[in-house]
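dumping this here so i dont lose it again. seq + smiles for magnesium ion
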Amino acid sequence: MTVSVLIVDDQAPFRLAARAVVEATSGFDVVGEVETGEASLDAARELQPDLVLMDVNLPGISGLEATQRILAAGDGTAPVVIVLSTYEAAEYQPRAEEVGASGYITKSEFSPARLEEVWAAATRGTAA
Ligand SMILES: [Mg+2]
């Protein structure tokens, strides 16, 4: 099974970097990229990704708000959301968990190994 990934980030260099990490991770494929939280709501509905990599700081609604809305739209097909931020985990991790995100990765630590690790933790116990 290939894990389809939607990347949400307002900064093009980070989208490129995130795409490179995802493509370098065996079994993961990028299916879309968007720049705003609003756009992520439409993209999540249209593309039905398995995983959303969500930036926190976005123009318009925040990544946390977008996460909450994507998960609330749940008709059983809601993706796993992992929040990515430049901020240290201590700052946003609790809030990310509060809105239902399955994981949190600091951007400077984002790598295939971290992605696999957080994905495994997020989907543990489910028939993936
Ligand atoms: Mg940002």
